[in-house]
Structures are given as structure tokens and as C-alpha cells.
Design goal:
This protein has about 240 residues and is α+β, with helices and mostly antiparallel strands. The protein contains six helices and nine strands. Strands 1, 2, 3, 4, 5, 6, 7, 8 and 9 form a nine-stranded antiparallel beta sheet that branches. The longest helix has 14 residues. It is globular, with a radius of gyration of 23 Å.
Length: about 240
């Protein structure tokens, strides 16, 4: 039979599992066995912060962007939404919580104003781990927001003024023009922190540590706040 050029493409796609245009993904057949480690009660400290710092250091050593986290919020109408932001602070004591920064007029800002309860997810796939945080968000002090804003690169500072975050814009060129206008506005001067921009601190009520295990019998240890103490329990996978 005459060999057709597309035959090699079919064979390559079959060998790699990569579908050609119009083919359906074989999602049911894609799986990875989790064998990198485990998480036992004897290895888990009394505080979730201690374990988070330990896991974070290991995620940092593994490469990537370990401070990238998914923030999930709920609108006043009860509609959930999620997006990835960067963790920019983690404190205990008086200023306890996970800190990130954003435009207060963005969708997540509007959501958190209406419903401050939210969830965070740290997906550390390379280590077959994830950390889930459930808590309540509140704005950080103005001084904290201004101090962090001053540490940002100038382009990021200008972007905070230029972008009407989460609002519809006609095209990319419109965004570029807004950035040019912001650069002209603050030419030769420091860029101040906008009043509509700042941080949120999520004070956790529960922190769950998930470690993938063989046969999908994963380890899940969750810390729940009880008054001023943490209660640690194991969840079934």
C-alpha cells in the first residue's frame, strides 16, 4: 500500500499520546502513580506554620514558583471564581495570615468585600503535594501596602495605575496606551501606591497538607483552629 505523508503523523501521535486536531484527548488513560513520599502524624508538628515553612523550603529547592497560589472567592451572588496570585507574606502572632496584593476594584476585590471567606491552594506538583487554606481575608494596613508597593519594580507600579483590572477593554492597544499615559503622569517622580491597590491577609481557620501516595491512598492531615490552639486530624483520601 502506498505510504501517505499523514501516516507518520498518525503513528507519532499514537506513540506520544498527543492528539491531532479534531481528536479527543485520552484523559481517562492519563495517570501518574504518586510515590515520592508520605506524611505521618509523628512527622507533623503542632503548628501548621512550621510544616508549611518546611514544605515551602522543599518546594523552593525543587524549582518553579512555589509562592504561586490559587485564590478562590465567592461573589455576593454566590458565584465562585479562582485565579493564581503570588504569596507575598506569611506571619504569625498579631499579624497572622497569608498575604497577597491586588487591585481592590478587581473581581476578587469585589468578591472579598462582599464575602471575606475564601480559600487558597498551593499546587506543588513536582513534589506530589498540595496545601489548602480556608480562612477569612481582610485588608492589610495602608502602611503595609505602601511599603510593599515601594519595593515593586517600576513597571509593575505603573501597571497598577494603568490597568482597570477585571474590566472590559477594547483591545491590547488600549492597555498599552493606558500604560504610556501612566508613565507620562509619573515621569521623573516616584510612583505612589494607588488608593485602590493593596494587600489582603487571609487568617486561616483550617490548613490541609496533602501528600500523594501509591494507589491513590493519599495522606491528608488537616489543622483546624480551636480557640487559640490547632487540632490536627487525618482525613481519608
Amino acid at each position: 500500500m502506498e505510504h501517505r505523508p499523514e501516516d507518520s503523523t498518525d503513528e507519532s501521535a499514537a506513540a506520544t499520546g498527543t492528539p491531532r486536531s479534531g481528536q479527543r484527548l485520552d484523559l481517562a488513560g492519563q495517570r501518574v502513580d504518586y510515590t515520592l513520599g508520605g506524611l505521618s502524624e509523628r512527622d507533623a508538628p503542632a503548628s501548621p506554620y512550621e510544616l508549611f515553612h518546611r514544605w515551602y523550603d522543599e518546594a523552593l529547592a525543587a524549582g518553579g514558583e512555589p509562592n504561586a497560589m490559587v485564590v478562590s472567592s465567592v461573589s455576593g451572588d454566590g458565584l465562585p471564581s479562582s485565579r493564581t496570585v503570588l504569596l507575598k507574606g506569611l506571619d504569625e502572632g498579631e499579624r497572622e495570615g497569608f498575604v497577597f496584593y491586588t487591585n481592590y476594584r478587581s473581581r476578587k476585590g469585589r468578591d472579598l468585600a462582599a464575602q471575606p471567606g475564601c480559600a487558597l491552594l498551593f499546587p506543588w506538583y513536582a513534589l506530589q503535594r498540595q496545601v489548602r487554606v480556608e480562612g477569612v481575608a481582610e485588608q492589610v494596613s495602608r502602611a503595609e501596602s505602601e511599603a510593599y508597593f515601594a519595593s515593586r519594580p517600576r513597571d509593575a507600579q505603573l501597571g497598577a495605575w494603568a490597568s482597570p483590572q477585571s474590566e472590559e477593554v477594547p483591545d491590547r492597544q488600549a492597555l498599552d496606551r493606558l500604560l504610556v499615559e501612566a508613565a507620562r503622569r509619573f515621569e521623573g517622580t516616584d510612583v505612589p501606591c494607588p488608593q485602590h491597590w493593596g494587600g489582603y491577609r487571609v487568617r486561616p481557620e483550617a490548613v490541609e497538607f496533602w501528600q500523594g501516595r501509591h494507589g491513590r491512598m493519599h495522606d491528608r492531615l488537616v489543622y483546624r483552629r480551636e480557640a487559640e490552639r490547632w487540632r490536627r486530624t487525618r482525613l481519608a483520601p
